[in-house]
Input
Amino acid sequence: MKDLLFSWVERNRDWTLNVLEEYLKIPSVSATGEGIKEAQGFLLNLLNGLGFKTRLIETKGNSLVYAEFIVDETFKTILFYNHYDVQPAEPLDEWISPPFSLTERDGKLFARGASDNKGSLMARIAAIKAFIDEKVQPPVNVKFIIDGEEEIGSPNLSEAVENSKDLLKADLCIWENGSKDEEGRPEMILGCKGIVHAELKAEGGRQDIHSSLGTMIPNPSWRLVWALASLKDKDEKILIDGFYDEVIPLGDEEKEYIRHIPFDAEEKLKLYGLKEFILGLADKRLLLHHLSSPGLNICGLSSGYEGPGHKSIIPKEAWVKLDFRLVPDQKPEDILRRLRAHLDKHGFHDIKIENAGGYPPARTDVNHLFVRLVAEATKEVYGKDPIIYPWMAASGPMYLFTQRMPCVSAGVGNPESNIHSPNESIYIEDLFQGVRHIIQIMIRLRTTTD
Amino acid sequence: MKDLLFSWVERNRDWTLNVLEEYLKIPSVSATGEGIKEAQGFLLNLLNGLGFKTRLIETKGNSLVYAEFIVDETFKTILFYNHYDVQPAEPLDEWISPPFSLTERDGKLFARGASDNKGSLMARIAAIKAFIDEKVQPPVNVKFIIDGEEEIGSPNLSEAVENSKDLLKADLCIWENGSKDEEGRPEMILGCKGIVHAELKAEGGRQDIHSSLGTMIPNPSWRLVWALASLKDKDEKILIDGFYDEVIPLGDEEKEYIRHIPFDAEEKLKLYGLKEFILGLADKRLLLHHLSSPGLNICGLSSGYEGPGHKSIIPKEAWVKLDFRLVPDQKPEDILRRLRAHLDKHGFHDIKIENAGGYPPARTDVNHLFVRLVAEATKEVYGKDPIIYPWMAASGPMYLFTQRMPCVSAGVGNPESNIHSPNESIYIEDLFQGVRHIIQIMIRLRTTTD
Output
């Protein structure tokens, strides 16, 4: 069966490339709203044509495309999470070929969305078409949930998933995208950190005041600085009471996976133009700290006079944009409550918390049978053990799925895919390897009796 | 003699007003360079006509106007410091009458520079013309040094004064301007705080980096926050080693003068739209702290993303604009050296000090005979004891003069003069009282045998 299906992949390269080419022509930029309806129509049409039952899930924003191919109610079900929206293509003059026209060059396919996330979705659709064309009964039920607002933070996904709980029921979620590392090893990501965004604001007089009065009038910049310094010390320890209480220490398997993640400190320092990492660390202990620790980051600071030269004022206000990165089992609402309590406890009643929001971390049990099966399928297709990230340092709405089922990333990217940047691309061969990967995962999932 | 001279003031109101009107027509805005040469020519011509020896003192910027009227080498000499430049008149649409056209309204004279500083200079010139017209030998030698860059921070004054030491030799300096307070009491200011401007800068990667790496990559915003919090604590204590070492405690007379300065805490809070002052103080202790303490103020802070919404980055840099306010005998070079030592001692070698500069505080001995004489002359003309500020909280280049002689402010302003703002004005009667004030100071100075 596998050989037949894999040979389909070879025999139908043109079909796969042609459909991907049409899909990439649609400039479905969620930031501008362009091409959104067109992309929805394209996917509904394509998946309908393959025999899927499809529908749009309406939200306050761009609708989600839902499609299901139920083979047998007793079979396991895979849920593919993807998104049809893309980042804006700007700056356009840095593209070697037009962003919304698939161009082949040096064994690569260039276009906005080639990797993030249209190529990876195409691999999944092609995998299913292989079964259909070869009249092999798919060994699992398949569902697609295709987001139209991932690139603007999926503001309506949570509500849509909550309202479509039954529809989205499945045994395994394959996350939107994935990548090989620098040495061609496939990465498998099982979760991600959560995030809390918040702004802290300190207010002073009704306008800026001459700084000669600084020995009399409270300065909101100083208030903010003192409040911030009370939140995290120079050893990166977050000083909010109970902040670490819900952190579940990494299990031995998770630590073991992290130890296997390649990490070249020197190269990373060079890449970012840095002299050193935090805490004086530069080895696997840094990586372990990085992935296992929650964080508190300053994204932006502003107060008073920011022009050239000097202006002697007490600013009328000062604010900071923060983000917390959460690890299992920290929850945004706890963090925000504790932040407020901390500020009050330390005498910063005057400092307001504004524009706060976020979502929890996502974790898949690394010992889950399906995680092992996907890892085996990956090794079978790629010929290499996957690099397993118990979770990634970045944040995403994966928690909506990991709350209900194991979740594993898979995709056709590579470290030079330039996602979110000009000249986004994937390797042609990675696309077809990606198709085989999905076929193999489906086959593997059938063989389980879990 | 006094009566004759004072009657000259009344008989020559039109002359004084007409000359001031011509002078105020010149838009001598140092920020733009407009009208500078014209103002110089006007003053040289006017003072020459009165019998002064005049010259321009060249600098790298706008020349200073120097004029002297030496009556007798054995007489005491008064040096008047003034400036012929004015603040820009913008925003123009907020002026009720055109800024560069003297307009009389409700007993007031409106024009840019009416108070700061053309009106006060006019009072001084008219006082001397009284002696000349009435053929009364002036009882003191008179020198004028008239700055053309005061409104842009007098960047070349220090060098000019240093190069003209002998020319500017005098026994008493009368500072550029002065004001009555809300209850019509004349203020006398004997000095001012010094200032140090500096920017602190922390640098990170070569560009902003995704904030998910915040548990690995040092954040320059945090470095800056920690460095700032190490400089001053929540009790407003500046934590730099030796910072207070050169502070000379206030003398009993100085404290007594400060106790006599009117201070209405409630009214000030209302004015600025504040709930409270620093340190929980709201009485004369606050004023004493305010005037006697050096300060460290944040004028501006900037780092990373400052637009709307969230952007999850580790900023590539962070900086702060600081100003220190110095009291006698603190020196800018000591403060900057100690600041660097503090940062190094606390592990902030990475934080750079940039664009640093400043000047020392200015102090006149409150017990100096000439201070007493000016105070007496003031009471004689205004009928009220002056409010004496041992020094003011603001900073200025007065130290260039207090290093060599006692220095006392005098002028024709009032609390609603709107200096630096639209609709700048003085009361007509204050102008003539100002002329009499200068005449009386000159007469008083003659009577001393010091």
